């Protein structure tokens, strides 16, 4: 006999079947998802109840429903397989304290029943849909865990606030975890909290260490799902999770699922997606919620100082790229217009055809590819981000924190590179640190009163906003 006392409602063995309207931070509509069994069917009634008994039954049911945290119904007796609570699972809740959009309602309901990739343009409520799905799994599985993964720490912080605002999950049940959260603290969080917001790197680390209770995870939401390619951490998490359990729902979110069909198929396969809910800006059900945009393209010249640095750096690129050209593993191209991606493709092609190349020579060529790819990454930073990001990247190479030791040694022997590196060092030494070059913050200045921008486009943006 169970030591837990039974309520009057449980003792009578009756269940009140009715449509429930509840509130979680506002009004909510309730209904049973299509495809779920009717878990709220009435049990046989006790014969001959008094007229007031029905009223008492309703009151008892309402008391039990409200006894759970956050308006979550209490489970009569132990929950069934996987922690599912039949009382909660008899219906699903959708918030009406926000304007009800039909496409969000339909996508939310579909995502409850199948692993779903949701593709919506930015600003049309992917996070809202995620919050609805998370809240319902939070209710349905009182002992389960709900996880939201985002690729960066700022996104993690942004999403926990948004989900709390939409569905009103109690703050005491939620937690945020990033790489800055110590391992022993994460272990306590996994044990004590039910709704977790974290980066995929944290998730895979805790799964591999056995800290994450994998079998308790019932809903996994993946933001920026288009990143789930190759061996990215999202893919590792899903592969590791299915070793422990197959009873969990995946909701993947992305505004741009892939550049081609092959990329989208990889995302679908890696995340075990069963259906895709796709809307474009021209879709009829989202047209009322989109606004016409006027895009004006402004081309900002790099400026005299940045062009001078660029021309010097191109000479460095030519010195190393010419090695690959001489051994016919890189087709001679316009060096300034060569990209990091083209180098990666050339390296992959070399590896496929390198069976006839001697081991020593193969190692040299691989090393030259590594140097060039690293240098062209710096070239992209210089053109897109400015001299501050470029200089910090070069400092990482020279102090050994980025790149291989060979890269540092090779660059140290290149006269053009060392002159450029010293030139940049002098620029920043006049302002004590690299942060002396302003990246568009008017309150951030160097030792002198001159306001210097890391990139000319920042100056253009500031003038446009004034």
Explain how this protein is built.
Helices cover 45% and strands 9% of the residues. The longest helix has 26 residues, at 359-384. It has three domains: 8-78, no CATH class; 98-289, P-loop containing nucleotide triphosphate hydrolases (Rossmann fold); 304-465, phosphoenolpyruvate carboxylase, domain 3. It has helices at 8-12, 53-66, 86-89, 102-113, 126-140, 153-167, 183-192, 200-208, 233-241, 261-270, 304-326, 340-352, 359-384, 387-398, 405-412, 415-429, 456-465, and strands at residues 22-23, 27-31, 92-95, 116-119, 145-149, 174-177, 195-198, 217-222, 249-254, 275-278. It is globular and about 75 Å long. The model is unreliable at 1-28, 34-71, 76-81 and 432-449 (pLDDT under 50). The termini are far apart. It is an alpha/beta fold and 466 residues long. The relative contact order is 0.07.
State the main characteristics:
466 residues, alpha/beta, Rossmann fold, phosphoenolpyruvate carboxylase, domain 3, seven-stranded parallel β-sheet, three-stranded antiparallel β-sheet, 17 helices, 45% helix, 9% strand, globular
């Amino acid at each position: 006999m169970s030591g837990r006392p039974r309520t009057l409602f449980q003792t009578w063995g009756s269940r009140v079947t009715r449509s429930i309207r509840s509130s979680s931070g506002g009004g909510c509509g309730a209904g049973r998802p299509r495809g779920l069994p009717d878990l709220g069917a009435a049990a046989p009634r006790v014969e001959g109840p008094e007229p007031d008994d029905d009223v008492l039954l309703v009151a008892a049911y309402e008391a039990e429903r409200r006894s759970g945290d956050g308006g979550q119904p209490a489970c009569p007796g132990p929950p069934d397989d996987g922690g599912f609570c039949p009382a909660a699972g008899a219906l699903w809740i959708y918030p009406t304290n926000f304007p009800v959009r039909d496409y969000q309602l339909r996508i939310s309901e579909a995502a409850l029943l199948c692993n779903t990739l949701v593709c919506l343009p930015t600003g049309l409520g992917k996070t809202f849909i995620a919050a609805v799905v998370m809240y319902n799994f939070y209710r349905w599985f009182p002992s389960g865990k709900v996880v939201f993964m985002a690729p960066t720490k700022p996104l993690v912080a942004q999403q926990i606030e948004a989900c709390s605002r939409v569905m009103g999950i109690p703050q005491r049940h939620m937690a945020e975890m990033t790489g800055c959260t110590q391992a022993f603290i994460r272990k306590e969080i996994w044990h004590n909290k039910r709704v977790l917001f974290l980066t995929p790197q944290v998730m895979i680390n805790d799964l591999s260490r056995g800290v994450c209770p994998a079998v308790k995870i019932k809903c996994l939401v993946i933001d920026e799902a288009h990143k789930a390619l190759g061996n990215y951490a999202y893919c590792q998490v899903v592969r590791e999770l299915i070793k422990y359990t197959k009873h969990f729902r995946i909701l993947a979110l992305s505004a741009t699922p892939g550049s081609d069909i092959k990329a989208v198929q990889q995302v679908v396969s890696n995340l075990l997606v069963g259906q895709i809910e796709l809307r474009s800006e021209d879709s009829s059900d989202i047209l009322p919620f989109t606004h016409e945009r006027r895009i004006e393209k402004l081309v900002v010249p790099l400026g005299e100082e940045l062009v001078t640095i660029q021309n010097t750096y191109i000479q460095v690129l030519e010195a190393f790229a010419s090695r690959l050209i001489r051994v016919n593993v890189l087709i001679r191209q316009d060096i300034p217009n060569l990209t990091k991606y083209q180098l990666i493709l050339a390296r992959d092609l070399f590896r496929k055809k390198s069976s006839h190349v001697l081991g020593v020579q193969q190692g040299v060529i691989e090393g030259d590819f590594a140097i060039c790819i690293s240098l062209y990454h710096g070239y992209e930073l210089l053109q897109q981000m400015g001299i501050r990001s470029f200089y910090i990247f070069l400092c990482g190479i020279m102090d050994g924190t980025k790149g291989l030791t060979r890269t540092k040694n090779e660059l140290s022997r290149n006269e053009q590179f060392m002159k450029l590196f010293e030139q940049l060092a002098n620029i920043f030494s006049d302002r004590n640190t690299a942060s002396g070059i302003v990246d568009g913050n008017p309150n951030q200045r160097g030792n002198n009163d001159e306001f210097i921008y890391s990139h000319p486009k920042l100056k253009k943006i500031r003038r446009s906003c004034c």
